[in-house]
Amino acid sequence: MDHLWSPWRYGYVSKTGPERACIFCAKSAAADDRKNFIVYRGKYNFVLLNIFPYSCGHLMVAPYRHVATLQDVDAATLAELAGITRMAEMKLREAYNAPGYNIGMNIGESAGAGIAGHIHMHVLPRWSGDVNFMTAIGETRVLPEDLTTTYDKLLAAFGS
Known about the structure:
Shape: globular
Distance between the termini: 50 Å
CATH architecture: 2-Layer Sandwich
Number of domains: 1
Structural class: alpha+beta
Strand content: 15-25%
Helix content: 25-40%
Low-confidence stretches: 1-5, 132-138
CATH superfamily: HIT-like
CATH class: Alpha Beta
Order of helices and strands: HHEEEHEEHH
């Protein structure tokens, strides 16, 4: 059996689990948006950076209300979620001008949701070759920009 080590993931897996508070609820309730990498707040949803990004600019759009499925979201929250997701794509295009974008949601742990109890939409720019052998074989991502630089760039793009 081969083993691939990815020690960077320890920070992620050690902060999750059923006994831990929901990161989306905790971050949205906190006063320090910069510390929590929140770049935009709407009436029902907010936008924050993924602190374990697949690519530079990896954003997540999440409702303030803790809900696990789309069927549990009220119409106003869902409409705003769609609108903010669209805005996030537009802002990422302005900031990064990437040729492609992944936009999607994993609902439930078996579908790949890292935080299964609180829905969130992923919006991230993609470039040809941004997934290479480092990601595919070594479970390691090489990002050319640190999170604070990404945050400042996207905060300016969102006009906050």
